[in-house]
Amino acid sequence: MHLSGFFDALKDSSVFGVFVFQEEGKIVFLNKRFAEILGYSDKDEILGKSILEFISPKYSGGGGMSELNSLENIKNIIKRRTQGEVFPIELKTHWFLSKTKADIPVSVFAYTIEYNKKSSGIVLVSDRTKEVSYQKLFFALSQINQLIVRIENKEDLLREICDILVDKVGYTSCAVGYIDETSKLFIQKYTRANTKELQKALKNLTIGVDTSTPHGAGSASQAYHAKKISIIEDVLQKAHMSYWQDYYSYFNIHSVCSIPIMQNNQVKYILYLNDTTPNSFHSDYLHLLEEIQLGLSFALDRFEKQKFLQMTQLAIDSGFEFVIITDENFNIIYANDKALSISDYTKEELLGAHHSIFSSKTHTKEFAKNFYKTLKNGAVYSNFMKFQTKSGKILDFYVNIVPFKQDGKITNYISIGKLIDEKNTIEQLEKILYTDPVTNLPNYRSFQSMVDRFLKRALSKNTIGAVAVINPISFSSINQAFGFEKANEVLRMIGERLRNILYSYDVIAKLESDRFGLIIKDLKTEEDLLVIVSQVLSELSKPYTLFNQSISISFNIGLSLTPKDAATVNELIDKANIALQDAKENGENQIGFFRKDIEEKAFKKLKLKADLERAILNKKFIPFYQPYVDKNKQIVGAEALMRWKKDNTIVSPAEFINYLEETNLIIDAENQLTDSVLKDLKELEKHHKDIPISINLSALSLNQKDLVQSLSSLLNYYNLKPNSLKIEIVERVFFKDFAYMKNLIEELRELGVHFSIDDFGTHYSSLNYLSELDVSFLKIDISFVRKIQTDPKTKNLVAAIIYLAHSLNIKTIAEGVEAKEQFEILKTLDCDYFQGYLFYKPMPKLEFFRALR
């Protein structure tokens, strides 16, 4: 067959690799695409060599390859073609060897042609790396999902992950382990590889997450610090992976992936994968890896819940107090070991029996009527009761009975009883009468007495004080979801938090059901109460962690003040309850005041707090970009400004930034913003737009211990140049701890991140510090820019700032430029860059991208 137009079209293809071989497989022609598939930039490096030199060792026998793919068979095919035999061959699982000795999966079509008057073979090659990557990842996801369904415990899950990914899916090696917090090393729990030699080498590999060490800069470190999947697509070409280069080279490993397995938003384990094919974990299929991550993280949570339920069951069965559970008709469906021991009944005798089997027949009809009425109305019943054992013995108990609801309907009653010892009856009765048995706090009766004493003292000394009634919202749902004992533990934790917040002379009590009462003494002004109670609400509303489970609870608080609201005990408590009801009508996490003038001030602030917490949870803080320009009005960079996307509107930071900065919420908000900015920078890079973006970080964010490692990991994760990111800091930040800020700036500058001082010139100490800080930019404050046209002194001051900055090799950016005259004056003063409404207003991402185009 002679060369034709068909071959002429193919030889320059950018999709298919093409080569022609003659005797002994010698390559006499190849196109550019074939060289690229094998990782060569120069075709001459391949021309004249035998194709047999580029055949992967996968063909040397074994490995499950078909006989058609063996080296001997390939040699035979070469011989037949060069002798003129015409026959087509299409293979879908060929493997070639790249310049870096990596295995490259390809599909080939081969035929016999005449080339330069000699019988030759022509081969069309299609790179299947992405296809094979997808197939393996999809198969891995399928296998792991099946594993999650059938496995019963964490250890089996972690071990079988490695077996599946190596033995079934076909990855070269796999390890799963955790980070030791002391040594910062990756400790392997289970390790698997396709050869014993590799498995031993991987087991002995030193991998860490301390980025100040050579072994702490790899994919495991990136996954740990960024809490995201880290993919290294060709490790032999990455400088930051040089510590393990000998290992990767010896075992021909080219792709690395680390998957953080999360529990309670923390990295619990890391799944570390290696493969011999470059791009085996292709970034286009990151979503499959994320599905694997989510599945494994879900499984860990499930195992933890199962473990907790088993422990809870054991605690109930062997507890010192009796526990009885009945159905809605008071027929017994469960009795713990202590109930059997005390009553002398067997489990068979109790199950199915009516709870009146314990009746002592000593209670009045009125007592029984009140008992059933309270429970059927859904309220908790607490009282002293006499129970009769099987032998007829009468025992005294203090009991709590809790109705359990599903879909608003009572389905069960949970009874827990405490036996009163005859020796200590008086002492125990005193404690029971005045102490809540769950929290060990004063109960409602004791609280009334304490309010009476407080009120008399406050009235005689004319001091301001308050009574607060605190109500956890829908606490019964916690009983239903997590069980009676766990709910009681949460009540104890609420009481402990209240002790830690308030002064020792304030009073904390456990009132009826799930309510708490406070007496807050000796206020200077009525407004001070708002500050105290807001702190109480903030602390109580934080999640509660019990046996590694996180429980979120909302609260309402009702307040009444003395002397203005009431002058008697009952009035003061009643008005606090009225205020509580008012708070409930306003929603969750609300404070109600008996007097509306104080309530209005509280409502606005607490609503903002709740909205901001939801905004952080739902990732509603987004960047708006305001470009800055050079003297020719060309965009040379931009500042990312925080905005709150609330419903269908964009909220200005003036409405929320001060409150964010008063709390730790600012850290979460700025972390969200930073992640969004880096994503946008990566998208700009794909469009060949290379401009720096600056972010503003608060003092709280700057003082995070792992800030440097976190930023480094995020930059590596998005594969961005560090100089694409700038950090803006206001002067007051480095006044508080200059040594710390200087060190932080130096660390991040070594990484490549630039710094800018915002609002420069607004503090008297600016010039003293400037020469010692390694900053790249100064932003001239808007207050100077606005007066530069009308105030000669201001103009001279700005000129001095620019001159000083340039003498220290620092660029200047004038912010708030709104008039053409301001722009012209600043240009004459040799200001470098300009930002303001004269050029661009802050704009959303898509509008910013259009401006760059």
TrEMBL record:
The record's Pfam families line, in alphabetical order, gives: EAL, GAF_2, GGDEF, PAS_9
The GO terms describing molecular function are: cyclic-guanylate-specific phosphodiesterase activity
- PAS domain: residues covered: 18-58, 315-352
What is the name of this protein? Answer: Diguanylate cyclase/phosphodiesterase (GGDEF / EAL domains) with PAS/PAC sensor(S)
Q: Which residues form the signal peptide?
A: none
Q: Which residues form the EAL domain?
A: 605-853
Q: Which organism encodes this protein?
A: Desulfurella amilsii
Q: Which residues form the GGDEF domain?
A: 463-596
